[in-house]
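Z., the sequence and structure:
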Amino acid sequence: MRFDLVKMPLVPAFLTLAALAAFGLGCLPAGAPVADPRGAIAPESLPLLPLGAALGRFQALFPLGAKLLGGLLLLFTGSSLGRLSMRYNLYVTTTCLALPLYGAAMLPALHDEAWLAAIVASTLLLLFLRNACLGYRNGFAFDRFFRAALFLSLLVLLCPAALPLLAALPAAIVRFRRTGRELIAALGGLLLPAATIAYLNWALGGSLVAPFAAWWQTIAVGSPAAALLALPLGDRLVAGLFGLTAVAAFLLFRSVRYHVGTKARHIVYFAGRLFLLALLVLPMLGAGIGTLGLAAVPAALLLPVLFLRLRRSVARLLYLFEIAAAIAACLVR
């Protein structure tokens, strides 16, 4: 039987994801200096390191452990995306293309000095998306939307430039037809991480509002679209290629939306809106190159729609071209 690249089975998809993750992490430098995250804030007011600074320190002090953790998170996120697509039958046919496409889309984001924080942010967005989709069911889903909001709050605390993604929470409530009581539960999950960090910082002898001041300080510096301007030309072209094909896949899905079930249709629609919100993060102040990894999560769910609708030969060439372009961009950095 001839191997069908578009209707990719699980084992070759997972092996391709693992190879891309190992290649991307292998191209990284051994370590990076850790900048002082406090800025103008007195250290005694902020004894508790912000989440991004803590991950940056771990990345610099334990580079091998950081690469191992990053590789495991990449495998977990890509596998979860593939499982999500198969569980809800998002496409007309079964395919695990989301796994290698996620790995290829994440390669430009690994060019960031804080690449571990970029991988963790991508995983947090996946956990938000997965819990929101699991909350789309008959009956109440207080627990699922509480967890979804919790992961979304941790994402914004880790990456302040991801502030536009907060709009994904009410979008999920509306798209998945949840009630006002579930929205209240989600707001509780949204506020819990910030309240916990503020309390821990105060318990260690610091100021109660210092974590929020440090968070605002990171988002108020820099220039707009710094993430895109800092990208090398090769990574910029790869990111543009994945972005254009993801938009084309979303527009194509609108014309064939009734070929899938109701639940799958709403999930793909929500992934499209999540992708557009992730694109709004890129021109934000303080956005780094790693924010490209946020768009990789919904893009990996959208792209198989395009590949499954193209002719087999064209889809095969486009898939190989995207994978090869992502690898070549890493090699020429």
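The chain has 14 helices and no strands. Confidence is low (pLDDT under 50) at residues 36-40.

Let me know what you think.
H.
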